[in-house]
Design goal:
The structure holds two protein chains of two kinds. Chain A is α/β, with parallel strands linked by helices. Chain A has 13 helices and 20 strands. In chain A, the strands form six sheets. In chain A, strands 1, 2, 7, 8, 9, 10 and 17 form a seven-stranded mixed beta sheet that branches. In chain A, strand 8 and strand 9 form a beta hairpin. Chain A is globular and about 65 Å long. By secondary structure, chain B is mainly β. Chain B contains one helix and seven strands. In chain B, the strands form two sheets. In chain B, strands 2-1-5-3-4 form a five-stranded mixed beta sheet, with helices on one face. In chain B, strands 6-7 form a two-stranded antiparallel sheet. The chains are: A alpha/beta, B mainly beta. At the A-B interface, helix 11 and helix 13 of A face helix 1 of B.
């Protein structure tokens, strides 16, 4: 049995910042992760930029950032949450700077680049393609130096503990031994990230199967905007590239422009070598070219930087050019192939500006929270969201914990009695293909209905783990959560009979004013 | 849609240490695929009880998939498969948990 004022589940940027903020506000904190602390999740993989109105490159104000965020969100941004992201962003970014993250600098100030959808140069970064690892490392070091934070990796939360309708902690399994570990907590923060692992083509880590959504749903919490899955338009497709994040071409385009071309080597978006298309627009533009028979050989588009000399490439990306060479890629000589890839989830747990979900004493932080980015997320808002929401959740959870006694929880786990004979690793692959094909960037009623039918037939049982590390049990755990969350996305997508932002229905291509509203799901 | 270029179908024999003995799996692959791709294929197609540790899959960001391949310590996610036999073993200097998984968490981040 573990016990803590504040339990934080997930150790990406949101979870680590939440732990630091809660400890600073006087709580003792237990920070758990199903992987290693600060290594799994999405943050560590982010090679891109962070949108924040620090106004170092040119004058800026958080209200301008908010206006761009709301515009990108296609009418569905939650006003309070979007404001929190934009207004608190500068303070968090400056605090990260004090902690030594190493934001790239030019002439003594933070360098900021102009990303698509922003009205000015607003995005900070860490060279070269090192934003996420630097953010993770900085927060990890800070967490390690905070004695009030106990860290435990290899601990997967299987269920939230609910008593009298309130969250009183969680039930977890220690994966190397299979031991059940009840955790009592006055306040619990889910910082478990999004759901992009549901898709065959994704830029996620293995931890992004929607664990937090499934936990919250089974605990009675409300989810919101589940149909809005952002596909990043220019995810790497071919030739095979290893050791690099598939979304790495984004910062290349910020710095170098680049031309997106179809099989006839013609630009098909109104860009003329500039990087200006919003993510939803570019994603659908590429898929339409492919559908019209003008895709690249592997079914995407060409991206060319052949206008850049070796010297220009090296100045912009230094050692990354050598890593590309090791993969057999010379950008001065060849275009590469790119295609949409599941990247981020705009939906998630419904939370107020205090980050508390609809279940009392259960908080959420980061990508796991739905609503701040509406139907389409603006470039660079994800890390800002992780930091600002993490800080707020930690502060508010600590304030709550200071006022209430430690709850008791029972040692019940709620596992099912039978163990299915399926290969759960294969079932996960099948689910990912199904989601990519029918619940991806282009959707139809027929496809969604077919997906829903198949998803419902998949195994949702979770037996107790065997003693010792039980990889099949881990897959059964993931399949159970992924299946539930996939059903939420599919049902919400089926119900929304219009096209808006990341949700595009081929049978309902218009945006409908009547649909300028949220859908929520609870069980 | 264009058709991907044809590649010759290659095969690697992954000889994996599982406790005291080795078990071999024949893994089909295309040029460019990695040892981690091969291990994930084995779990989905042959034996889901095979224990491996990884998080970020392909980006070499999480650093969790470290193991020994043919006697050298490498990341499975950046080591390419080659036709013929490859010998996979867990890290020798870490406590073995199962198959290719070892205890690599810092001591103060383990369950006490």
């Amino acid at each position: 049995m573990l016990c803590s004022d504040v339990l934080v589940v997930g150790s990406g940027a949101a979870g680590m910042y939440a732990a630091i903020a809660a400890a600073r506000a006087g709580s003792n904190v237990l920070l758990v992760d199903r992987s290693l602390i600060g290594r799994g999740g999405a943050t560590v993989m982010a090679q891109m930029t962070v949108a924040v109105a620090v106004g170092e490159e040119e004058p800026d104000h958080w209200e301008h950032h908010l206006a761009d965020t709301v515009k990108a969100g296609r009418g569905l941004c939650d006003a309070e949450l979007s404001q929190l992201l934009c207004e608190d962003g500068p303070a968090c970014i400056r605090e990260m700077d004090e902690w030594g993250v190493g934001w790239a600098r030019r002439d003594g100030h933070m360098a900021q680049v102009h990303a698509p959808g922003h009205d000015r140069k607003r995005c900070v970064y860490v060279d070269f393609l090192n934003t996420g690892p630097a953010v993770s490392k900085t927060l990890r070091a800070r967490v390690q130096r905070t004695p009030e934070i106990q860290r435990v990796g290899d601990l997967v939360v299987t269920e939230l503990a609910i008593r009298d309708g309130m969250c009183v902690g969680a039930h977890a399994v220690h994966t190397p031994t299979g031991a059940s570990v009840p955790i009592a907590a006055k306040a619990t923060i889910l910082a478990t990230g999004g759901l992009t692992r549901l898709y065959a083509r994704n830029s996620a880590s293995i931890n992004m199967g929607g664990d937090g959504y499934a936990l919250a749903l089974r605990a009675g919490a409300e989810l919101i905007d589940m149909e809005f899955v952002q596909f990043f338009p220019i995810g790497h497709l071919a030739p095979r590239l290893v050791g690099m994040d598939p979304i790495m071409w984004d910062p290349f385009r910020y710095k170098l422009g680049g031309r997106l071309l179809n099989s006839e080597m013609k630009e098909f978006l109104p860009e003329e070598g500039r990087y200006i298309s919003a993510r939803d627009v570019a994603t659908h533009g590429i898929l339409k070219e492919v559908a019209a028979g003008r895709g690249s050989p592997h079914g995407g588009a060409w991206l060319s930087f052949q206008h850049c000399s070796e010297a220009v490439l090296r100045e912009a990306f230094g050692p990354v050019i050598d890593r590309l060479a090791a993969n057999g890629i010379d950008l001065t000589r060849q275009p590469i192939e790119v295609a949409p890839i599941a990247h981020y989830h705009m939906g998630g747990m419904r939370a107020g500006a205090d980050m508390q979900t609809t279940v009392p004493h259960l908080f959420a932080a980061g990508e796991a929270v739905g609503g701040a980015n509406g139907a389409n997320r603006l470039s660079g808002n994800a890390i800002t969201e992780a930091l600002t929401f993490g800080r707020r959740a930690g502060e508010r959870a600590a304030a709550l914990a200071a006022k209430i006694p430690m709850p008791a929880i029972e040692a019940s786990s709620g596992f099912s009695s039978n163990r299915s004979k399926i290969n759960p690793a294969a079932e996960i692959v099948r689910l990912q293909k199904l989601m990519n094909e029918h619940v991806g960037p282009l959707r139809t009623q027929n496809g969604l209905e077919r997906a829903l039918q198949e998803i419902r037939q998949m195994c949702g049982d979770l037996p107790p783990p065997r003693a010792g590390l039980d990889p099949e049990w881990m897959d059964l755990h993931d399949l159970r959560n992924m299946r539930l969350v996939a059903e939420c996305v599919t049902r919400a997508a089926l119900a929304r009979t219009e096209s808006r932002g990341a949700h595009q229905r081929e049978d309902f291509p218009e945006t409908s004013a009547a649909w300028e509203r949220h859908q929520t799901i609870r069980v | 849609m264009g058709t991907p270029p044809d590649h010759p179908r290659l095969s690697a024999r992954l000889k994996i240490r599982r406790g005291a003995s080795f078990e071999s799996f024949d893994v089909p692959f295309e040029p460019g695929q990695t040892v981690l791709d091969g291990l994930r294929w084995i779990r989905a197609q042959r034996d889901p009880s095979l224990a491996i540790r990884f998080s970020c899959i392909n980006a070499n960001a999480c650093k969790e998939c470290m193991m020994r391949v043919d006697g050298k310590t490498v990341y499975a996610c950046t080591t390419r498969l080659v036709a013929g036999e490859m010998r996979l073993e867990p890290l020798p200097n870490k406590k073995l948990i199962k198959d290719l998984v070892t205890e690599i968490a810092p001591p103060d981040e383990r369950l006490r």
